[in-house]
Amino acid sequence: MMKQDPFKEEPHLRTKLDEYHVDVPDFPMKLKRKRWEQLINVLASPAKNPLEPFISTTNGFIFLKMAPIAGTAALTLIQVLIFL
């Protein structure tokens, strides 16, 4: 909470701000929802596709096709090196 007025040292800024008058409309407040409804709304909201940046480019699409193959080859190589 501010106890001092920061515009006291700036009279020019104070006069410019006093020129503007803003009418704030009175919006009715929404009723507070229950926690259960909030949880349901969070779970039901649509999710962003995490693979969208990869699918939109050709190189990303090829990467998504090759990543499982490379991962399988790496795991196989690790197992071969460990058990030899």
List the defining traits of the structure above.
84 residues; 58% helix; elongated; membrane; transmembrane helix; transmembrane
Overview of the structural elements:
By secondary structure, this protein is mostly helical. The protein has a domain at 50-84. The protein contains four helices and no strands. It has helices spanning 11-19, 35-44, 52-55, 58-83. It is elongated and about 80 Å long. The termini are far apart. The relative contact order is 0.05. The model has no long low-confidence stretch (mean pLDDT 84).
Principal-axes geometry comes out as: elongated
- Global structural class: mainly alpha
Mean pLDDT: 84
Question: How many distinct beta strands?
Answer: 0
Helix/strand order, N-terminal first:
HHHH
- Helix amount: 55-70%
Instruction: Supply the number of helical segments.
Output: 4
> Radius of gyration, rounded?
30 Å
Percent strand equals: under 5%
Give a quick account of the main beta sheet: strands, pairing sense, barrel closure.
none
Transmembrane segments: 61-83
Keywords: Membrane, Transmembrane, Transmembrane helix
